[in-house]
Description:
Layout: E1 3-4, E2 6-9, H1 25-37, E3 42-47, H2 52-64, E4 69-75, H3 78-87, E5 94-101, H4 104-111, H5 115-130, E6 136-141, H6 148-161, E7 165-170, H7 177-190, E8 198-203, H8 210-219, E9 224-227, H9 241-250, E10 257-258, H10 266-277, H11 298-306, E11 326-328, H12 334-343, H13 351-367, E12 371-372, H14 373-381, E13 392-400, E14 408-415, E15 418-425, H15 429-441, E16 446-454, E17 463-471, E18 474-482, H16 485-501
Parallel strand pairs: 1-10, 2-3, 2-9, 3-4, 4-5, 5-6, 6-7, 7-8, 8-9
Antiparallel strand pairs: 11-12, 13-14, 14-15, 16-17, 17-18
Helix pairs in contact: 1-2, 1-10, 2-3, 5-6, 7-8, 15-16
Amino acid sequence: MKDRLVIFDTTLRDGEQSPGASMTKEEKIRVARQLERMKVDVIEAGFAAASPGDFDAIHAIAEAIKDSTVCSLARANENDIGRAGEAIRPARSGRIHTFIATSPIHMEKKLRMTPDQVVEQAVKAIGWARNYTDNVEFSAEDAGRSELDFLCRIFEQVIKAGATTINVPDTVGYNLPGQFAETIKQLIARVPNSDKVVWSVHCHNDLGLAVANSLAAVLAGARQVECTINGLGERAGNASLEEIVMAVRTRADVFPVETGIDATQIVPASKLVSQITGYPVQPNKAVVGANAFAHESGIHQDGVLKHRETYEIMRAEDVGWAQNKLVLGKHSGRNAFKTRLAELGIELASDEALNAAFARFKELADKKHEIFDEDLQALVSDETVTPEDEHYKLVYSRVCSETGETPQAAVTLTLGGVEHKAGAFGGGPVDATFKAIETVAKSGSELLLYSVNAITTGTDAQGEVTVRLSHGGRIVNGNGADTDIVIASAKAYLNALNKLHSSGDKVKAQGDV
Ligand code: KIV
Ligand code: ZN
């Protein structure tokens, strides 16, 4: 019998700390449901004390999710832990994850606390957390640069105080695999009560070693890995869930552990997170990149045709790569539409939302003969926008683009329900449209990123546009999809403006106590 490797997904917390990757409550619930479908053991749903919006999202996820443990992060102070405890209260299985920094540089320069004070605060934090749940995780932030003797001391004390999982983060991605494995081995050997807890690791990817360090730690005795879909996360990101899961599974000859993950849900999860956050997946990304199973050279193609395992160590279908499935067409009815959405795990909040999505599906089916699952996913993402979130709304858009002429756009928008019209010239039709929108919106925001992807194949495919805007220190992503990429662009721009318009001030998760 192999040990269970607990998969702790932090896409909704550490992943959301990537610039511009912030998600709305509805988007977070969709991601959480997909993680549950994938059978992730623990979903870190956010950092409850960061903002009222984070609190609400964690609370809603705790209500919605039944099969995974729902966790909130909390700094080691009574207020944060109280917020986390309240946020996870509805969960069938809830966890509080509290942390304090333990490296000399963090304790001295950031916390301005002595090591004794840090131990005392950590022990108190576990006590506060145990008032809400007996599932308490403790992280020693920047453990990767902390002194081993001090880690042994603080871990022994927090285990005595009731922590049930001990997490060893390489917060700044500084470690090398052999070194990190040795740290884990030493900790398990030297902490006297180490057998009372699950040992966990949380590795950042600053040197591109997050997955390697996590896997080395598993070989050294760690039994929980913290990771994210597509390796999203603070700076260079976290260890990627799909790589960890498939390495453990593909090299079952080496790893004494197995996960409970349904790997066929990996690609749908990757696409969903990429679509919502606007972070594209590089084509050569392991497991989930578009080329991960594509064979270009003749020798490789010939080999795979003769015997697949000559050049493939995993099967594309095992991680959820399927042929684009023609699901519905112009003549499909409301019931077929609803059933397919349910099969994709999409539940719309009300009958009105379903009717609106169905009407949009019919419009799309008129323009495009074949509707694929990816089209449905893009289509319903618009249904999660509530009227309160939609301060800026597109009523009409027209562009004129001719050889030798300057492209020109005209738009009609509503701002808080009041209609405005504007026109502008630009370098291209999209540029002209954005300029026309800005003539009305006057947001003063800076465009950081503009990208277009075809959702499916063919020239009638919907274009999915991501627009990243920055204003007053906030960075947001907007998404829009349409068979007309200028309209998709206008929708994405307005979606980003609407996100900037909604309040969303947050405390950073790596703050002081
Ligand atoms: O990287 C880190 O140290 C963290 C902790 C809060 C676990 O994200
Ligand atoms: Zn982190």
